[in-house]
Amino acid sequence: MPDVKNAPPVLQPDVFYPIVPDAAWAARVIPLGVRTLQLRIKDAASADVLPQIEAALAIAHRHGCQLIVNDYWREAIAAGADYVHLGQEDLVAADVVAIKAAGIRIGISTHSIEELDTALAAAPDYVALGPIYETKLKAMKWQPQGLDRIGAWKQRIGALPLVAIGGITPERADGVVGAGADSVAVITDFMTAQHPEKRIETWLAWAARQRLA
Ligand SMILES: Cc1ncc(COP(=O)(O)OP(=O)(O)O)c(N)n1
Ligand SMILES: Cc1nc(C(=O)O)sc1CCOP(=O)(O)O
Ligand SMILES: [Mg+2]
Question: Name one GO cellular component term (predicted).
Fold first, then answer.
């Protein structure tokens, strides 16, 4: 188990930001030393959502990991999550004031300058840009953004943390951070690995090197 006793308070997503589909995956990867995790539940029975968030949050906080809840902002408030992640459509439907009043930080997806302006108007705690590379996870109307867009986003948002997502692998991650991203969010690379835990360990070693750089 990682030593979290002397860890400084974490105010932004870690440089390695894995995303998992359920609490069972959260229990599998958090104890390896993951410091920031998004729980991205899709296709769950609604009665199952809050218990999954609560279970993931308990594991996360036991291990000094911040939990970001995707989409389910009401349940995130009820459970006391660290962050909520909202896409542009989620943002329209969400009560941002209530999320912030609950002390929960907010991350927002962006894919175009117009979406970035919309996101910034909500005063988020981080902005995500994607897909940087082609993603196999879901069909997207957006073409891969490429590395240059990362620099353009970072110039525009300044000190606000920038999370890059979409098709990111350990081989590509140095380039993504070098272009200006503060964090890389990852799903397919480790979820489809033959040994997901080993792949997470590869990512954690990369993250440790980033923190020293
Ligand atoms: C870090 C991060 N970036 C983007 C997304 C995608 O959010 P959204 O567009 O709302 O799509 P869903 O993930 O809800 O299908 C994300 N979840 N995390
Ligand atoms: C869930 C998601 N949202 C994206 C966006 O651009 O908003 S890309 C994406 C999937 C990214 O994961 P992978 O590492 O599997 O390619
Ligand atoms: Mg969403």
Answer: cytoplasm
Q: Is 164 in the pocket of ligand 1 (CB under 6 A)?
A: no
Residue with tokens 């991205």: 40
pTM: 0.95
Q: Is residue 4 part of a domain?
A: no
Protein residue with its CA nearest to atom 8 in ligand 2 = 166
Q: How far apart are CA 111 and CA 56, in angstroms?
A: 28
What digits encode the pLDDT tens for the residues 70-112?
A: 999 999 999 999 999 999 999 999 999 999 999 999 999 999 9
- Report the alpha-carbon distance of residue 129 to residue 142 in Å, rounded: 11
State the total domains in the chain: 1
3, part of any domain:
no
- ipTM of the modeled complex: 0.99
State in Å: Cα 19 to ligand 2 middle: 9
122-180 pLDDT, tens digit each? 999 999 999 999 999 999 999 999 999 999 999 999 999 999 999 999 999 999 999 99
Report d(CA 84, CA 126) in Å as an integer. Answer: 10
